[in-house]
Each structure stands twice: as C-alpha cells, then as structure tokens.
Write a structure and sequence with these properties.
145 residues, alpha+beta, Glutaredoxin, 4-stranded mixed β-sheet, 4 strands, transmembrane helix, transmembrane, electron transfer activity
C-alpha cells in the first residue's frame, strides 16, 4: 500500500520545497504555479486515477463469469496511465489488479512475461497481452459486453 504512494508523496514534497524557495526569493505567483504542477503530477501518478483494484484471483474469477478483461498495472507506470486515460470511462468496466498490492497479481504478470513484471498486462479470454494498444483493448471490452 505504502509503495504505491511513494512517488506521489515525493512529487508533492519536492514541489513544496521548490515553491518555498520561490516564495523566499519573492515570486509567490511562480511558486503557486509550480506547486500546482507538482500536485497534478502527483495526482496522475497516484492510485487515485485508476479504478479500484481487486486481487488477481478475484479478478480472474469475475472475468470468467462476465468475460471482461483483467488489467494488471502498477502506480507510476506511464504505459498504464496511457491505457487508463485512453480507455476513458470504459476502463471502469474492466477488472484492475495493482501488482504492487497483490503478490498473486505480480506472479501472474511474471508468468506471462518471462519472469518480468511488465505492465500493463491485459488478460483477455485467458490469454495475456503485454502493453496492448488501447484501441484494441476497447474493442475487446465491447465484445465482452
């Protein structure tokens, strides 16, 4: 749990330190703008932008029932962020597994990627797809609906 928040916390702390330096040097407007940028970066890199994660076993069980894809991801991954943002609202219909929170999810990703924890790994109909094109994932999601 804590591991997922390290990067966002570091971004906020660094932004705060830089903003404090700018305030001391007499440019509070630039400090506010810089702090806003760092807070936005922290938000984008936090687990908050992603749908609520569930365990790998629960995700696979649900996927077997409803046919929806399972997405294995981790906070701070730019490719995961790209997939999540490009899927838009339809991302909420998928089953998301944070591999930093779920050891079984990390093991499933390593099994699918020759021992590497490469994310996003999307499981569609039992077959893993590493870093797939978001348009392709959207098509798979519409097929399962």
């Amino acid at each position: 749990m804590t591991r997922a928040w390290i990067l966002p916390m570091l971004l906020v702390l660094c932004g705060s330190a830089l903003a404090a330096g700018l305030i001391v040097s007499g440019t509070p407007g630039a400090a506010a703008a810089l702090l806003l940028v760092f807070v936005l970066l922290a938000g984008v890199n936090s687990p908050l932008i992603f749908p609520r994660s569930i365990g790998a076993l629960e995700a696979q069980r649900r996927s077997a029932v409803d046919g929806r894809p399972v997405v294995f991801w981790r906070p701070g991954c730019p490719y995961c962020m790209r997939l999540r943002i490009r899927l838009g609202r339809s991302a909420r219909r998928m089953h998301w597994v944070d591999i930093w929170r779920d050891p079984a999810g990390a093991a499933a990703v390593r099994a699918a990627n020759d021992g590497n924890e490469t994310v996003p790994t999307v499981i569609v109909a039992g077959r893993p797809h590493t870093n797939p094109d978001p348009a392709w994932v959207r098509k798979q999601l519409s097929r399962s609906a």
